[in-house]
Amino acid sequence: MDLFNNSPLKILTFIFLLSLIPSNQLCANTGSDSTSYSISINKNNIKKAIVECIVKIEDSSLFMSSIGANQFPNRWANFIHELKATTPEGKPVELKSLDGAKWKVHVSDGSYVKLHYEVHLDHEEHEWSGGVDGAAYARKWGVFYTGRSVFIMSGKEKQHIKVRFYLPEIWKVSSPWRIIENQGNSYLIDNLTSLTDSMFFAGTHEEIILIRDDFQLIFALGGDEIVKQKESFSKMATGVLDYYIDLMEGVPNPSPDNKFSKSIVVINSSSKTDGEVIGNNISILLEKDGDEMSELIGRFIFAHEFFHLWSGKSFAPLNDDCEWFKEGFANYYTLKSLFHIGYLNKESYLKVLNDFFYQRYITDKGTGKLSMIDGALKHDHWGLIYSGGFFIGISQDMLIRSSTANQSSIDDVMRILFKKYGGTNEGYTLSELQKLMSEASGKDQTAFFNTYIQGVAKIPLDHYLNMGGFDAIEENGKLLVSLKKDAIPTEKQISDGLFGIK
Ligand SMILES: [Zn+2]
Fold first, then answer.
1. Domains, the chain, ordered by start
2. N or C: which terminal CB in the chain sees fewer CB atoms within 10 Å?
3. Which residue has the higher pLDDT, 412 or 157?
4. pLDDT at 31 over 80
5. CA of 325 to the centre of ligand 1 (A)
6. CA 160 to ligand 1 centroid distance, Å
């Protein structure tokens, strides 16, 4: 995505594009026989990974991830070379290559097969619709792979998958996987979803590790310009992480089907800026010698996506009629968190509210015509769903705060959802959101939901901002908003709430 020259609009457009990345899930609950991989990289040619694995064959087939690399008929297998299969005793096993990174294996199901193959790290020689940051790439200081670019698998319900690395002497690995102690660079992965939705960086990069309760956030930083900003990234990550934990009153608590206790954020310098989210992990490339903008982009991407570890992964809607809530409120808390870490001040916060979010909303062809409960619209109507949802968040927040003399806020609704659904396989519904927001303000929100959420009317954002200590007016396609000069103390508290100030 070649989006970033120098305007905040472009940066924020990036968040929008980021949201388009599909994240499918394989399902892997129960399983048995362990699969193990070894990945060897030689310092004389880091653009080649030699993979060996032992896998129990199911459905007479081998396959790679079905997500991504759509530009090649043989998908991720485009980068696989010298694939050979034998029995564990070394007797050759016949493989028939099929389209779409699949192979038919001529052994009976339940047999073990040993695979040997090479992954050639030539991904950067091709065009990637989502950028090479979602595939694999090499740098002087190491190599980045997504799980989907490396692993050939069989079956659906494998558990306790082991990955071991053999690397140049001074290299290390950053990954979201569980470390197996005292076994060199060895890791344990719960299931095939976690394996393919993962990413790792191996090299001489630097790490920042933040631990809160049983949750770990790992930053892998590569390239001189990036490593130079280690301190600043560390401050940003700590600030945003602690803001969210404080807000939600706990670390992420995902459903039992998608357990994770580690998230990795890989940031490397590159010729252009890009970012991608896979599973619970974030890959970011930042333009080499980029201006302050590079720094800013990293913060926006991180803060929005990171919020989804709570809203999205810990508590999620049952249907796609609540995408406006999931995405819009993530934008609201992104801005609050960036204010909290001092990246935005009141002035720049309100400026971004009009210059980007309001502009996207008001110019969206769906605004005033389509209902935001149609989640499928999120791909073509960013303004309606992501900005519109954000404005529902502001409106409800101002309403709740002004109805309760700032004793309650939309934060309470987030916490109720997190406490109720965190760690479960259940999810919330649209009617539950309506009920919770009604209870928070003590005012029935049926009409609000019928009009602005299920209905297609444009949200009168100025009206709601004016409830909360702002002077706001919408005119000529602009949102003019400033802090009310003669605000009474309660109004000042409410307007502070918009910025996330307690
Ligand atoms: Zn999102």
1. 32-194 (2.60.40.3650), 205-314 (1.10.390.10), 320-499 (no CATH)
2. C
3. 412
4. no
5. 10
6. 30
